[in-house]
Amino acid sequence: MTMTKYELRKRTGEVKEGIRPCGVEQVVGQWGRAWQVDWFSLIMVLLLLAFAPFMVFYFVMACDQYSCELSGPVWDLYSNSNTLHNIWKRAPSFSWNAAKIYALWFASQVFAYVALPDICHKFIPGYVGGIQEGARTPSGAINHYHINGLQAWLIMHALWVLNAVYLQWFSPSIIFDHWGSLLWCMNITGYVVSIFAFIKAYLFPTNPTDCKFTGNPFYDFMMGIEFNPRIGQHFDFKLFFNGRPGIVAWTLINLSFAAKQRELYGHITNSMLLVNILQGIYVLDYFWNETWYLKTIDVCHDHFGWYLGWGDCVWLPYMYTLQGLYLVYHPVQLSPAVVLASLTLGLAGYYIFRTANHQKDLFRRTNGKCFIWGRPPKSMNCSYMSGDGKRHESKLLLSGFWGLARHFNYTGDLLGSLSYCLACGAGHLLPYFYIIYMTILLLHRCIRDEHRCAWKYGSAWQDYTQAVPYRLLPGIF
């Protein structure tokens, strides 16, 4: 059996399990976002700023005008069967009705986040809500967060069901009926938020020592300058915009698509039910574990810029719900075998995703004094420096799923993403964009995360990668 370099060094006594100190050669406070921008990164930033909004528009327009056939617009233009002017004329435009709907939705989310103290943690066993402590920032600060996402999700969905069954103030298909016009409203909101965050970082940053200026305005605008921009003590931009209004809306959007399918065809297909169930589990998991989310890469490493501001307002609600949108235009009735296979794959992916994250969270909360897969966990002791010059101790987990691969939670996430796509059959490429995008996103996150960890932990990170040599798939990658 081939041993890794780490195992060989440990056997010879050069490295002792659990007490490997971190190298001290890392630069103090530089384990967050990049300080300098190379030409490749700048080109990618400019391409994303230019083409990401266009891509969202293209997908919505392709469904609206070409029944979700992604090649339809390109072929029409190539064969002179249509013109850009005609496509643009037929595309949904801004409407004040959509603006009112979105303004009411956005205001309700701000109210639920700011004005309603969490009570769910008081009567739901196992749920952690209320004011919670986040991870240490690169400057050494520790922020506190108002965790009440589950409460907001429950309230909004209870109101939705109440309206659909009893009140009937609006049609359950209201989101689909204004989907194109709402895109304008969400884009406006995303850009306003991103521009405000950019200006705020210069004029009145929440924590100046956690700001990073590269000197390139395009990169700073996209990737963000402030680490945790806030208004007041607890209104945190990253936590609010990632979860509310984006993820709370995710399941409501899917419900609206299901309602439109029933309105058009007289029934809801099993594929639409499957997408609603699998994605509903994912969304509920996020809010149930919102406190755990404070330890993830989004909060612990990313600064708040266009990437998160516009992405949470536009990309997430539009590109993460493509399966439900597709099934409105192409209702698919799956065979029982395909339903079972897709459901099994989705649940298996969720199990891996949740169990891996739970193992790391348990390890952190107990400082390693726990059992993972029935045994005490193996780990490496490391240290790092924050921007205030203080040294802090940390541990890297080597057991459970984290002993199989360094990002095995992403593997589960990808399996779940694939199950959503498979639920749509094999008729078109559009619903499979999600698994393509998630693969690129999570691979990029692996690289970004490991780059930061190399800065943060120094030579100990090299020993960790030797102990756990695979990123996503044991024995393969």
From TrEMBL:
Keywords: Cholesterol biosynthesis, Cholesterol metabolism, Endoplasmic reticulum, Lipid biosynthesis, Lipid metabolism, Membrane, NADP, Oxidoreductase, Steroid biosynthesis, Steroid metabolism, Sterol biosynthesis, Sterol metabolism, Transmembrane, Transmembrane helix. The chain crosses the membrane at residues 39-60, 152-169, 181-203, 264-284, 334-353, 417-443. Its main location: endoplasmic reticulum. It comes from the Eukaryota. It catalyses: 7-dehydrodesmosterol + NADPH + H(+) = desmosterol + NADP(+); cholesterol + NADP(+) = 7-dehydrocholesterol + NADPH + H(+). Gene3D superfamilies: 1.20.120.1630. This is 7-dehydrocholesterol reductase. It comes from Eptatretus burgeri (Inshore hagfish).
